[in-house]
Structure prediction request, 404 residues.
Amino acid sequence: MATPLNDAELEALLSDLESDRAERKQTWSGDAPEKSRQAVCAFANDLPGHGKPGVLFVGARDDGTPSGIDITDRLLLTLADLRSDGKTVPPPTLFVEKRVLRGAPMAVVIVLPSDSPPVRYEGRIWVRTGPRRDKANAQDERILNERRRFRDQPFDTHPIAGCPLAELSRSVFENEYLPRAVANDVLEANARSYEERLASTGMVASVDDPTPTVVGVLTLGKTPRTWVPCAYIQFLRIRGVEWGDPVADEQEIDGSLEQMLRRLDDKMRATLATAVDFTSGSTVEERRSAYPLVALQQLARNAVMHRTYEHTNAPVRVYWFDDRIEISNPGGPFGTVTQTNFGRPGFADYRNPSIAGVLKTLGFAQRFGFGIADARKALAENGNPDLEYQVEPNTVLATLRRVP
Prediction:
């Protein structure tokens, strides 16, 4: 996809010192990375409602003149990581390029307005009014939340018709979820109503319409499967290597996102056996896990994060054979991810950006876009064969082979 701004448009923004669509950084040192992330978040939120991209210029002084820094590939990769480092959710859509402006090279980060505001950097919502960047106040959040209602929202932000506010556990929200959300200032949160805090975190449609959303029910729901029937994991331990072999253990694992993933972790730990290798002619006993737990966790969490929750009753499936583990989820490639580039570094998109944000807050995802790479690394270090993927339009199947 081509970048949405040409050189003339970029130079006009570079020169407009009062614009709320431009931020300039002379170098990439000191507090520049932190303030740049805040700027990217603010551009994605587009509080003024321009509907146009915001631009971060690295290598430009405050007056728009070039600072003459070296624009290296390493710098460009660092800037590209602003999208997928897990600190900004939902992940913003941005382009990173080296461009020659005013006769000198600069790094340019072009940020598109989000279709699902508010966007948060480390839990805080940043906005711009003129050249000033600041944290959003309650009214700013209300505007962004209301704007989200009238856009083509991801399904995980949709309100669930007929679901009462009482379905959400207030104690879990206030005592467990909010304290873990880095972005929430406790005093600010306590100064707002319960409904305002729910709307701010996307758990209900809005303050005026406190209907629980899909992500709200999955995060705080007392009975999530009542409202989202497909929200469970089917676990099978099959004694054998073929479909139809005896099933030794079967469980439907459900509950909130946190409960479901913690229960699955417990089940995988209990099932995970160790292989014992007595080396020939040696009294040394070497114990090695049949599978690295971290790889199983990454792939299972990826399946829960990226599956489709819309128009299906199919669960995520974890089928544990004697020679392999198959993890499958309904919902094929999404957005910029295709059957061709699936699993390749640098290709990531989010069918459920709000669910991704919740998993980040709960500690199940440290950084976005690296789950498959981390799983492959763990498998290689443990001596397992490489991860196998079968990618279909409506399903994704990951196969892990046992240590030989």
Notes: The longest helix spans residues 257-271. The chain has 13 helices and 16 strands. Residues 182-187, 274-286 have pLDDT under 50 and may be disordered. The radius of gyration is 23 Å.
